[in-house]
TrEMBL record:
UniProtKB keywords: Membrane, Transmembrane, Transmembrane helix
InterPro entries per UniProt: DUF6133
This protein's record includes keyword Transmembrane: yes
Name of the featured protein: Uncharacterized protein
Bilayer-crossing regions: 46-67
Organism: Desulfitobacterium dichloroeliminans (strain LMG P-21439 / DCA1)
Length: 87
């Protein structure tokens, strides 16, 4: 009976040590993650997306203005002149 109780005591002691070690590891992992300075934040990503949208809109507006005022009227005139055989 004494061996049985000693065995239970050893198992409980080992289990307590394993639980303590596991909790210590989780604590240290959480502490390391919270103190780390690496990674990219949400604000940085939002600013990059906003910059890409604004630059894309500016490029698109510039191309629309170029084709709307410069290229298309002269193209239309050239096509009319090319197919106007009466003159």
């Amino acid at each position: 009976m004494k061996k049985f109780l000693n065995k239970i005591k050893r198992n409980l002691s080992n289990t307590a040590v394993n639980i303590r070690d596991h909790l210590t590891l989780k604590y240290l992992t959480a502490k390391t993650l919270l103190c780390s300075q690496r990674g990219e934040g949400f604000v940085d990503t939002a600013i990059k997306i906003l910059m890409a949208v604004v630059i894309g809109a500016l490029v698109l507006a510039g191309l629309y203005a170029l084709f709307g005022e410069t290229v298309l009227p002269t193209l239309k005139q050239r096509i009319t002149d090319m197919f106007n055989y009466g003159k």
